[in-house]
Amino acid sequence: MMYDRILVRYGEISTKGRNRNKFIDRLRKNIKRALSNYPNIAIKAERDRMFILLNGEDSYGIAEKLKEIFGIQSFSPAVKVEKDLEKMKDAALELFRKIHKPGQTFKITAKRSDKTFELDTNGINSEFGGHILRNVDDLKVDVRNPDINLQIEIRKEAAYISAETIKGAGGLPAASAGKGMLMLSGGIDSPVAGYLSMKRGLEVEGVHFFSPPFTSERAKQKVIDLSEKLAEVNGHFALHIVPFTEIQQAIHKQIPENYTMTTTRRLMLRITDAIREKQGGLAIITGESLGQVASQTLESMYAINEVTSTPIIRPLITMDKLQIMDIAHDIDTHDISIRPYEDCCTVFVPSSPKTKPKLDKVQNFESFFDFEELIQKAVEGTERMVLKPASERKDDSTDDLF
Known about the structure:
This is Probable tRNA sulfurtransferase. Helices cover about 40% and strands about 20% of the residues.
């Protein structure tokens, strides 16, 4: 028997109140985009679940796509059957035989939202369990840890039969919770921070600071490649490339060496905040993890954050490096991030950076030079590109990138 639909469960979306439909509509759009290569499907969104009507399309290929979409708690390939007991039993047996292997155990899980159906849940379990046992050899029941859990759901319009519950990515639909600007270096941490922010429903745009000739075109390309990986989540990713050379040269000329890192981060934050305002963002996202490097102590964060009142989201703040690397491997950004092309932060790191900078001191050092003109020049000179996933990018055309 061929599956004719996939039942999608919302999970966290189900806890939403009056604005639930907004999240459901965003999830529907995200699923439609992700499944654009399956033109025959139809998506039917309801308040408590969603159905993807396959219309002959490959259920396995679609399932692989659905696993990566934020907002889906779980899903099940299923068949829709008329609420006739004999037809339901025939369909359940046909589906079971398709997936059963000798020696496996099973159980029946019934759910009856239509209370007018002739059997209650215990009756459904007994009737269908007995039917399967009578018609399939070498089979035992295991209600605690079965190899196959045959699920039978009786709803008002029909019965639905499935035998798999596939875990989804969870979270909230991408681009359902406002926009944030991700300070995207070429390292391991910031792409992971962007990915986790997307999982909470944020629309994320990247801001990268580029300092030629101290940083190379290959370093810039690395960030573009990372952006294309992040674009897999929502079908596109906007990246802002900030010219930063002149500012870094001024910092190293005007600021004592052990405070250059602090001032660099403060000016990066000011520039990111200005770009955020232009793009209608509501937050700034960083890949900071507490105590990993000198700029990520609480004292440093306190001194750096002073330049803005915009909320700063730090998804990795309590994670250690191994946890972050595990996620980077999972989302396929790790190998790009470890390419040996340095970004402007690593090129200009002082030999002894201040790990507990004083806010009054850094303010004093910066007061002797007016950085405002350079900041405005950098914001105005920022290059913006909209990148598609590498898997969807046309090799011979860049028309769609801008």
